[in-house]
Amino acid sequence: MGFEKLDEMLEIAQYTHRAPRKQLEAMCWAYWEFASNNKELFQVMLRVELTSSFSTYLVQEFPLRRLKPVIEQLLVSKKKGPLASQERYFQFFSLIQAFMPGSMYESVGKNEEKHTRSILKEKISGMIKSI
Questions:
Q1: CA-CA distance, 130 to 66, in Å (whole number)?
Q2: Angle, CA of 111, 103 and 30, to the nearest 5°
Q3: pTM of the entire structure?
Q4: N or C: which end of the chain has fewer CB within 10 A?
């Protein structure tokens, strides 16, 4: 259920924009928002990840089918192959995971949440520009 809901949010974010860079940015934010708005469900998804190799595959690979093709579109002009898009995907995945809302794990104030979003916005933008 959680993975399907996440995929639905990623799909909506992707098709809201036409430009690959905007799609990628929107999908990163959709992933982050999903975790933020579905804290308990997302924690269960991550907790399952820690106990099952199949779930690890789902948490890390499930969004791959949405993000990787967009990353590949951006890499076409640089003549980079599929391995490069896989590496970029995992860089995005790691970045978003590293900045998961602190409120998922503890109570944080609005200013801290706003600061985290600001830093994540910079990081996402920088990573997209580096492609």
A1: 19
A2: 90
A3: 0.77
A4: N
Q: Which amino acid is at 18?
A: R
Q: d(Cα 48, Cα 55) in Å, to the nearest integer?
A: 6
The candidate with the shortest Cα–Cα distance to 42, out of 16, 66, 65, 9, is: 9
> Which tokens belong to 30?
């959709």
**Residue at 17: amino acid letter:** H
Per-residue pLDDT tens digits for 67-125: 888 888 888 877 776 678 778 888 887 888 777 756 565 666 777 778 888 888 998 89
Spell out the alpha helix ranges (H) of the chain.
Answer: 2-15, 20-37, 39-51, 53-61, 64-75, 82-98, 110-130
Name the one residue in this structure whose structure tokens are 């490069």: 84
CA distance 6 to 106: 22
